Structures are given as structure tokens and as C-alpha cells.
Amino acid sequence: MLPYLRLLKLGNGTFVGDFVKYHSRLRWISWRSPHPDFRADNLHLGRLVVFKLDKNGFTDDSKAWDLIKRARNLKVLSLTECDGITTIPKFSKCLYLERLTLARCNRLKRIERFIEDLPSLIELEIEGCMNLAYLPQEVGALVKLERFSLRGCHGLM
């Protein structure tokens, strides 16, 4: 693996193999149309700050979500056209998360209560998630929230 790589932009790719010997210095990942057969073991992204995931078929139980859950320094998470998910994984260990974007995740139905465990969240954009039917009242407990959008989330009405 490239030991000094900080920025990675992938299209139609995936991570495969055991990364136990590698300690990633990646700080920014943009991953578009990833292969659904995610098979990376021991991939640690402790320094990751920005993760953008677009156009994927990952389901609620995909191993790929473990990457995000372990990225404890994550500040920006953008999930766009993640049509395989019906709920977002529990990201409550991402205590520094400042910006969360969920856009055009057409099967997304609910956001769980753990959202209140994100004390640094200043921007929450949920847009074009037409089947979103449940948003917890704990969103109101996000005291640092400055920008909140539910544009195009018709299922909430």
C-alpha cells in the first residue's frame, strides 16, 4: 500500500485483502460506484477526516460500514445515492462529525436515535430521500446544528 497517500479517489473499485500490516494515513476518500463485494480486513482509517460515498449498492449489513464506524476522526460524511440502505449505520463513535449529508438514498426509511450522540454536528442535510418516514426528535438536541435540510423528503409529511 502507498504509505504516504492522503487522498484517494476511487471509481468502480473496492478494497480487497488483509491490511493488518498497513496503517493508513488517508485523510480523504471519495468512492464512487464501488463494487458491492467489499472484502477488506483490518483496514483502519483512524486519520480519515472526509468520506464521500456515491452510487453504491451496499446494504444495511455491509462490511463497508465498519470503515466509517471506526473512523473516529471523521468530520465530513456524505452518502449519495446509497440505494441499498434502509437506515444509516450507528456512527455514534464519530464524535467529531461536523457534516452529515444523505442525498437521494431512495430506500432510506429511518434515522435512529443515535444522532443525538454526535455533539459536533453543525450541518445535517437530508435531501431527496423520498421514503424517509422517521426522523427522531433527538435531532432537536443537536445544540451546535447550524444548517438542517429535509428538502425532497416527502415521506415525512
UniProtKB/TrEMBL annotation:
Residue ranges of the TM segments: none
SUPFAM superfamilies: L domain-like (SSF52058)
PANTHER family: DISEASE RESISTANCE PROTEIN (TIR-NBS CLASS)-RELATED (PTHR11017:SF570), LEUCINE-RICH REPEAT-CONTAINING PROTEIN (PTHR11017)
Protein name in the entry: Probable disease resistance protein At5g66890
Organism listed in the record: Rhodamnia argentea
Lineage: Eukaryota, Viridiplantae, Streptophyta, Embryophyta, Tracheophyta
Gene expressing this chain: LOC115736070
